[in-house]
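Please check what follows.
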Amino acid sequence: MEINLIQDEIIEEFSSFDDWMDRYGMLIDYGNGLEPFPESAKTEQNLIDGCQSKVWFTAEMQDGKVIYHGDSDAILVKGIVALLIRVLSGHTPKEIVDTELYFIDEINLREHLSPTRSNGLNAMLKQMRLFALTFSQFWIMHLGFKKILSLVGLLLLPYWIYAQEIASTDTTSKQTAEVHVIASFVKSFDYGLKLTLEEEIRSIPAHRSHTTISLAYTPIEYLSLSAGYVLKLYGNQGWDDPNKFLRHRVNVDATGQVTLGQWKLSLRERLMLDARADEIDLREKNRVDYTLRSRLQAVYAIPNQPLSIVAKMEVFNTLNAKYYGQYISELRPEIGLQWKVDKKNTLNLAYRYNYVYSRELDVLDSGAIALTHAYTHKHVVLLTYKFDY
């Protein structure tokens, strides 16, 4: 029930009695119905400063709502505690902070309290609002880490299984760290069409830029189809690398999506055609690689906040490696925070762990051809800005 509806109920209940002795009796009854407050919580830390009697308050978050617990050693004050908990408990931090509590003046409660108890009432209200304000600012403390950890664990499960499978293979392995900065501009049209222009800069240690143009079509709410072209510039020794080269990529996507409460789940299947005209080895030059990229994404919208937790898991399946056979070539678990600044502007900060597995043909000193395995562990920080026209 909304806070204002509860306030109106209380005003109506108090209007049934004109005599304040009867109203005091109502407050005492409210206090007698208060949930038991654990003795272990009656600590100095939970005491409300400014109250003549001893008053204890605690608060916790459950499903995005503040739940208050309180008690007092004075029966009348305990009734006031129960009244405030009835009004404010079970609501979001924003509702608690923004709502005017008019019922106190409507039932003339302040006028029938001593000055010290009136000050105590103000102190209780201040502390309850402070709890709500703290929760609204430090939302990560009450998001429910079990949900987040469970989601991350689920997305990392395929990586763990695959890692166990290849752990016994003779490998060479290396670690890298990268920073990716992405700017995306999106224009929506009639008939479910959406045009996206995107520029991505990758640096440390490789220097690359990806320029993307794509067109998406959403025929129904649960399905989106898109196609895009990517121009990739590589400069392995820096932007001034005289040997920098271009690659061309074409993507065809199908994405299924569903919204469940605060959660938005999606599965994207992408067929990627990568023209690798720069390759000079035993493989043919100017070849095209075909890769199927499967990405599972879960977005949790934090209640009453412009923030969302975004978790992803993407698997790269190389389809046409001529000499190497079909194999899983990359795994990308990712976790990030999305901030919807306003209707048009969105920022996203994320961490991605890229596990890259490659098979290469090598010519031994004897002249024989051998298949080698190489593994790269990439730690990537991504900063994304999106503007919706």
Remarks:
- The first strand starts at residue 55 and ends at 62.
